[in-house]
Each structure stands twice: as structure tokens, then as C-alpha cells.
Amino acid sequence: MKLNSAGAYFYLLCVGSLLFVKSASKEQILNVGFIIEGESQSWALAFQKATEAANQTLAELLTGRPHQVRLVPVLKHIEAGNAFAATKAACELLREPVVAIFGPNGNAASAQALRVSHKHGIPYMVTRWGDEPHLNNVSINLHPPQSVIGHTLRRFVEEAEEWKQLGLIYTDDEGLEKFESLLAHFKGDIIMRKWDRNDLIHKYVIKYFRTTMSQFRFVVDIPQSEIPEFLDLINEYNMTSQYYSYIFTDWVREHAIFL
């Protein structure tokens, strides 16, 4: 999840809420609900940081005005895949009350939280991959389907960066599905090399591109944990000058890095 996107949505929610604020107090507190599956602390940290960023934006927007708005995150942790717990958590958040709910990752849990939010007209943010054909006008999908991401990546490298050729370094054959649009419609030349688990193969992949000088633009789809090794290798083979560009994608962790 991109924190800037979450902050932007918070900002929009607050602007909408301001239209209905009648309180004479100097500061309006708005609760935002989050339902988190499993024991991972990364989502909680991401939501906390997004809230802080949104509050900073709101403070700048409302500077000099008598009325201020501050967002307060309300976190609910549930067992992974527990649809009943998701329903209960959504109901508890409504009693706070909250101005919006960011749903859990799992399909079953998210569907139940979405149902509760729709019933009461509370804005609901889908935080998992996939299309949601039944989303209504109070729901937003923060994670569009992989086909959309792949299409956007192709347009970015072709139109924004004007790449005429690229090298695709990947780990998993099944993971190539997300690059379908890039592979099918990229107008330039693409050379693909698989990043095998064998350390020696890793060196051969980098050495090939350095020796042939065939590509200077790369999309690198390898696990985040292996990126440091990759960076060490391209540094060893002097492939870090201003002539080289790399886009690192790790769809499992749902983020991309551009160098």
C-alpha cells in the first residue's frame, strides 16, 4: 500500500466531512477505522504513518482558520480469514463512530466488512488486489487488478520515460502474468533473463547484459530480500552510471521502486 495514496483519501474524506461539521469547537476529531488481519505490525505502522501524513496536510490546508480537523486511527485486529470477526470489528467501528473503514486483506473478511459498511453508507476502502464489481459509490479500491498495474507500467516506460528497449529480469514464471500488457504491447525490444536461485546464475545474468551492452533499462521482478545482492552485482559490473535505469517490482509486497 502506498502511504501517499492513503493520505490523499483521508484528505478527501476530511474535506467532505467539513461540509457537515456544525460544532463550535476549535478542533474536530474524526475517527478512521482500520481492520487488520493477522499478527503483522507492518499494516498498523503503515496506517499510523498515513494518518500522520494526512493530518499534516490538513493542518497546512486549514492554517489560519478557526476550525481545525484531526484524524484519529482506530485499529481492530482480527484472526486471518475470520469473516465473523470482520463483521464484528466493522460493527464496533460504527459505534465509535468512524467516518470511513479501511478493510482487511482477505477475500472473505473484506466481503463481510464491505457489506456492513454498505448497509450503513460508510465509505469503505478495499486494501487487497482484485476487481470489486459490487462496489458502490461509497467504496474505493486502493489496489486495482494486476492487469491495470501492468498496463500502467507499460505506459510509464513508453510514454513518460520513452524507453525504446528494456531487459526484464524475473524470478517466477507465474509472476509474468502481471507483465502481460508490457510483453504483448511494448513497442521496443525486450530481452528476458531469469533470476535463478543459484548465486552463480545471478552473476551470469548481470554479466550477460554488461558484456553485450544490449540493454540499459531494466524491469527487475525479484524478491525484495534479494535486491541488495542485485545492487552489489550491478555495482561490481559498473552498471550504475547515469546511463542505466532500473524499476524494481515486488507485487507480493505491493510496491515498486524506481531508480
UniProtKB/TrEMBL annotation:
The protein's name in its UniProt record: Receptor ligand binding region domain-containing protein
Any one Gene Ontology cellular component term annotated for this protein: membrane
Signal peptide from the UniProt entry: 1-26
Domain of life from the UniProt record: Eukaryota
InterPro entries per the UniProt record, alphabetical: ANF_lig-bd_rcpt, Peripla_BP_I
This protein's UniProt keywords: Membrane, Signal, Transmembrane, Transmembrane helix
Listed Pfam families: ANF_receptor (PF01094)
Start and end residues of each Receptor ligand binding region domain: 80-252
Keyword Transmembrane: yes
